[in-house]
Every structure is written in C-alpha cells, then in structure tokens.
Amino acid sequence: MVHQYKLNGYNIVLDSCSGSIHVVDDVAYDIIAMYQDNSPEEIVKAVSEKYAGRQDVKEKDILDCIEDIKALIAAGKLFTQDTFSEMAGTFKQRSGDVIKALCLHVAHTCNLNCAYCFASQGKYHGERALMSYEVGKRALDFLMENSGSRTNLEVDFFGGDELGRGKAACEVCPQRREGTGQELPLHPHHQRHAHRRRGYRVLQ
Q: Which of 5, 74, 88, 104 is the most buried (most CB within 10 A)?
C-alpha cells in the first residue's frame, strides 16, 4: 500500500509494506499516483498536458520517470506486495482469542502547560476528560477475562498527566478477578508518582 501526501513543501511517498519513504518532485508525485491505473501512454498524455508550460517536462522525461518507478518496484521499494495479508485473517484463530496487553487512555488532559506539547496540553484540541473508575475497572476485568492461561499481563496507562496515570494505577491495578489468582501488580514508578500529590483523583 502506498500513501502519498504533501508536508512542508515536500512531496512524500510512503510504501508501507517495505517501509520505504521517497521524497519526489511534482511530476514524479503525479506519475506515481497514476501508475497502477493507467498505461504509460495515458500517463504521458496526462502529465504532458498538465505541465505543458514547463520545458523540463518532455515525453522522454516522463518515460524516464516511469522506468525509475519500475526499478523501484523491482527492488521492492514501491508498490510492494503485502506478504502478511494471508496470515492476517488467521491471526485471531492462531492467538486463541487471548489478550495479553491493554492501553488505557485515563487522562485526556494534563496539569502542565508546555507550549511545545503535540497534544495541545493533553486535550488534543478537544474537551478535557478523565476516565471514570468504573470504566477503568471494567477494562481491566475485560483483560483478565480474555487472558486465557496467561499469568503476566501488561497495562499501559496513557495520558497527559503522569500523576493522574499513577493514581489510576493505584486504584485499579490491585483489582483481582475472583477464582483466577490473576493479579495486576502495581509498578513502583506508578506508585511513586501517584502519591507525589495527595488528593489528586482521576478514576473517581
């Protein structure tokens, strides 16, 4: 699968299956977009018409670009086949419906105000919100209920405020599913941050 986009003046072509990233000019960008659904003759005609005013875009230049694309395809760097597509459909069957890890977005906010924050100070340009205790507990119950025979499970507490994440961990992680013996131990990192500021509550 190929993704094409423009960013900060660059024409970027990402071949997701190979991981290759190509930075190309406008002409190559257009040719790549047309390559799979059009013949070379159709590409030459369309590109020649679009760039009719440019002296550096002639039929030979377009054909050379098409040959470069063919070389990238042969090298496995463009329009690469997805070698995992056949296995993807059997993943659920192979995994036995077992879940071993969970990421909880417990704090859609932050008590800091960093100007450089990519998440707009934790709210991602949206409304600030905190996960309720009930939702957090039910999420961990779901993890345990679908963990099969696994005894070690992983939970990532995500959000803008590490104090909030730590508080959430303290309140929810010790919950144990009855009759299984499974438990989510609290990492010392979360416990340390959770008690740094008394009274800060996230899940209640």
A: 104
